[in-house]
Write a structure and sequence with these properties.
By secondary structure, the protein is mostly beta strands. 11% of the residues lie in helices and 31% in strands. The protein contains one helix and five strands, in the order E-E-E-H-E-E. A three-stranded antiparallel sheet has the order 1-2-3. The longest helix has 9 residues.
């Protein structure tokens, strides 16, 4: 996947026991916890994702709607 303006992408995730994403690994090899990742997404530093406000008023990260389920965040490989 090409990076627009050399922005990083998320390539892997860590999940908790409930299956919720807790941290992300970037294409540059960095590991970001959810809040760090959210800030980077909001700053436009990560390609292919966006931040949105959930019904609970909290901000969340989701993949851009491109019709390709294989690059959804939940489908990324996990890392340890």
């Amino acid at each position: 996947m090409a990076n627009g303006n050399n922005r990083e992408t998320f390539v892997a995730v860590q999940k908790n026991g409930d299956g919720d994403i807790t941290s992300f690994q970037t294409s540059g090899g960095r590991v970001l916890d959810y809040q760090q990742a959210l800030q980077e997404v909001r700053n436009g530093a990560i390609a292919g994702v966006n931040a949105f406000k959930g019904r609970d008023g909290e901000m969340y990260i989701r993949g851009d709607a491109d019709g390709d389920p294989t690059n959804n965040l939940d489908n990324l490989p996990t890392f340890s």
